[in-house]
Amino acid sequence: MRKLWSKTGAFMTGTLATVLIVVVLMTTGVLPVKTERTVVVATGAAAAGASASGTSSASTADVAARTDALTPAEIYERSAAGVVEVLASFSATGGTTPYGPASGTAQALGSGFVVSKEGHILTNAHVVNDNGQQATAVSVVFKIKQGGDTETTELPATIVGSDDTSDVALLEVDPAKAPALQPLELGDSSAVQVGEQVVAIGNPLGYDFSVTSGIVSAINRNLQSPNGSVIADGIQTDAAINEGSSGGPLIDASGKVIGINEQIASQSGGNQGLAFAVPINTARAVMHQLEESGSVTYAYLGIQGQTLTEDVAAALGLSATQGVLVAEVAAGSPAAKAGIRGGDSQIALQDQMYVVGGDVIEKLDGKTLDSMEDLAAAINGRKPGDQVVLTVLRGGKTLELTATLTESTSAS
């Protein structure tokens, strides 16, 4: 049975900085491209035997004039050996049959890529986690050319750590048992430009080690992670991405990885030229923390709020034209200590509830905030201990409040 793991809805909570969010999602579906999931059910005695922001520093002319640009065929030739299939097994219990309780195994198929000679492999967290349940077993499949032949090798893998907040996971295989490991070179996602040629390698719909090509359609997209957090600076591409592509590399024309293919926006459930990748700069930072401790630390502000648009502001009688309407401030949080105030009443506007009476955060460190996602992304770019200056509107007056961010930990 094929199961597409989808994320849709009207609200999402949590941020990459563990700031809580209330924000309207896209009208199209946002679908982590988790892949094929097969469930084998065994019952009774049979069960006993039954056995996954940046801005560019280069000019458009520089991109067009690159002399080191590789063709998709050349990129595939030099990079495919560093891409792997990721097979994750989950226990599937629950429900009953005429013969008693049902049990069995669910298996997910995704992609990943080698990042070190020591056997480290990057993939998406949602490939090896399913609704908070970590895979009971993970294996990876290498496909290596030997002379004129192609050989596949399947090895067990260990989950070093996974982080649902960034949708990044780090796996490890024994390099002594693996084929000659060919790590892919990581690029700089802050230098990515719209219009650049890119290539994706992965296992869409189970068609292993496929390559697709396209361009970077947009940058600085805010993506929704498996736990509802905001992944800032996401890369949008029209390279074909489908179920099974999750965790595979998005590679630029110089052969460097600029992102991890993570989700699609689709009304049909299939590729429509709207695919998104976690920026490799984010993945690299998460990878280093997972290597060191198996968990990832984020900065924390501690508010719950809603995006304030010009129309909503006018309807509420506010002088602000954009920003974040603060609904609630967590007790003892950096926001509370800075003096930020939450709302005290609710108003319904076109069937949407807004909490009013609190502050409106208009800027962070002088940068205008257009949405709650902007605030989440801004906090994501800070570290625990950093101070941020929040420009807030309160009762018609503009105030500047300083908050010292604290630590929030996302465990593996």
Total count of helical runs of at least 4 residues = 8
State the helical fraction.
10-25%
Number of domains: 2
Q: Mean pLDDT, nearest integer?
A: 82
Q: Can you tell me the CATH class of the largest domain?
A: Mainly Beta
Strand content: 35-45%
Task: Give a count of the beta strands, DSSP E runs of length 2 or more.
Answer: 28
Residue stretches low in confidence (pLDDT < 50, at least 5 long) are 1-31, 34-65
CATH topology of the largest domain: Thrombin, subunit H
Short overview:
The protein is mainly beta. The chain is built from eight helices and 28 strands.
Structure description:
The protein has 412 residues and is mainly beta. It has two domains: 33-294, Beta Barrel (Thrombin, subunit H), CATH 2.40.10.120; 298-410, PDZ domain (Pdz3 Domain, Roll), CATH 2.30.42. The chain contains eight helices and 28 strands. Strands 1, 20, 21, 24, 25, 26 and 27 form a seven-stranded mixed β-sheet that branches. Strands 13-14-15-18-17-16 form a six-stranded antiparallel β-barrel. A six-stranded antiparallel barrel has the order 4-6-7-12-11-10. A hairpin with a 2-residue loop joins strand 24 and strand 25. Mean pLDDT is 82; it is low at 1-31 and 34-65.
